[in-house]
Design a protein that fits this description.
With 95 residues, the chain is an alpha+beta fold. The protein has one domain. Helix content is 19%, strand content 26%. Strands 1-2-4-3 form a 4-stranded antiparallel beta sheet, covered by helices on one side. The longest helix has 18 residues. The chain is globular.
């Protein structure tokens, strides 16, 4: 599951960002392991890169992707950053 954000740049380009809801550094995190999440993020990145040059397949352009980072410190407090979440930033399709 992910949350989405619509962004408009100063030069009027439409971008959207998908941020995973699950944070691997959250106390009591019980989602997919960091290994599974990293594998899925790498796979999704590869799919976007594979589909992008195909003219008959409408696919948003992947501008940035990040796998979650699991900190080795104790996860007893709520994280103050988003590094433990998968993140994808894409350019919207032209209409």
């Amino acid at each position: 599951m992910a949350s989405g954000f619509h962004l408009k740049t100063s030069d009027k380009r439409d971008l959207f960002a998908r941020l995973a809801r699950g944070h691997v550094n959250m106390p009591g995190f019980d989602g997919f392991s960091i290994e599974i999440q990293a594998s899925e993020a790498h796979f999704e990145t590869a799919v976007y890169n594979l589909l992008q040059p195909e003219p008959l397949i409408r696919c948003s352009r992947l501008l940035y992707s990040r796998v979650p980072v699991q900190h080795l410190v104790s996860n007893l407090t709520i994280p103050q950053d988003l590094s433990g979440r998968r993140l994808f930033v894409l350019r919207s399709l032209k209409r």
